[in-house]
């Protein structure tokens, strides 16, 4: 993920350093399972119970701002959750596939 840094300017002095990251998410799944509804809810915070099927591809974007405190809290949660469950699940899937 490419990261860029810029300074948020307040008058003539830099108030804070802001790090920007761009992330792309691709959502795949069977027809009619709600992929578009899920993304629409995340991007626009709206839900339509009946939507036309998406033919081909659809693109949406959303900008999130996360404070340093929120980022630190999430990193701490990840450390606490680091019990190896993710790795065990991947190992089990690989064993089932025979890889």
TrEMBL record:
Basic and acidic residues compositional bias, start-end: 85-99
Biased composition (Acidic residues): 71-84
Nucleotide-binding in keyword set: yes
PROSITE patterns found in the cross-reference section: RAB
Region annotated Disordered, chain positions: 1-20, 71-99
A Pfam family recorded for this sequence: Roc
InterPro entries the UniProt entry points to: P-loop_NTPase
Gene Ontology molecular function terms on file: nucleotide binding
Keywords, comma-separated and alphabetical: Nucleotide-binding
Keyword Cytoplasm attributed: no
PANTHER family hit by this protein: PTHR47978
Record's protein name: Uncharacterized protein
Annotated organism of origin: Pseudictyota dubia
């Amino acid at each position: 993920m490419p990261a860029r840094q810029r300074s948020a300017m307040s008058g003539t002095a830099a108030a804070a350093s802001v790090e920007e990251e761009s992330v792309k998410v691709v959502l795949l799944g069977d027809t009619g399972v709600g992929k578009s509804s899920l993304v629409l809810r995340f991007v626009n915070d709206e839900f339509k119970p009946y939507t036309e099927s998406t033919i081909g591809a659809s693109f949406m974007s959303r900008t999130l701002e996360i404070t340093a405190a929120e980022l630190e809290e999430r990193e701490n949660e990840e450390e606490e959750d680091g019990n190896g469950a993710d790795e065990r699940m991947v190992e089990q899937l690989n064993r089932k596939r025979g890889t």
